[in-house]
Write a structure and sequence with these properties.
Structural class: alpha+beta
Radius of gyration: 21 Å
Strand content: 15-25%
Strand order of the largest sheet: 1-2-3
Low-confidence stretches: 8-26
Shape: globular
Order of helices and strands: HEEHE
Number of helices: 2
Largest sheet: 3 strands, mixed
Distance between the termini: 76 Å
Number of strands: 3
């Protein structure tokens, strides 16, 4: 009886550990997916599509990086990124270079 109890505890422990690993990699994969979707959305937007912008995502928070010519382009890029499913927040590190 003690052996079966120990075995059940071992199985439960392994299941919990594997579940935690899945959650960790799932978040990483989701961040990569969100970043890719943001980049595609930016490329497809006629207002900012020609700009060289990058998007990085951590925990669903998107950070836009690159240079733009005006505050209007910053605002447009942020608005486009916010529409992407899964983007919890958008931060701008965009630099304005006229």
């Amino acid at each position: 009886m003690a052996a079966s109890m120990a075995r059940a505890c071992s199985v439960l422990l392994v299941a919990l550990l594997l579940g935690g690993c899945g959650a960790a990699t799932s978040g990483t994969r989701d961040d990569a997916t969100i970043a890719t979707r943001v980049k595609i959305a930016l490329l497809n937007d006629p207002s900012v599509g020609a700009l060289r912008l990058d998007a990085r995502t951590d925990g669903g928070v998107v950070t836009l990086i690159g240079t733009v010519k005006s505050q209007t382009e910053v605002d447009t890029a942020v608005a486009v990124a916010r529409k992407v499913p899964g983007a919890r927040d958008v931060k701008s590190e965009l630099k304005i270079v006229p």
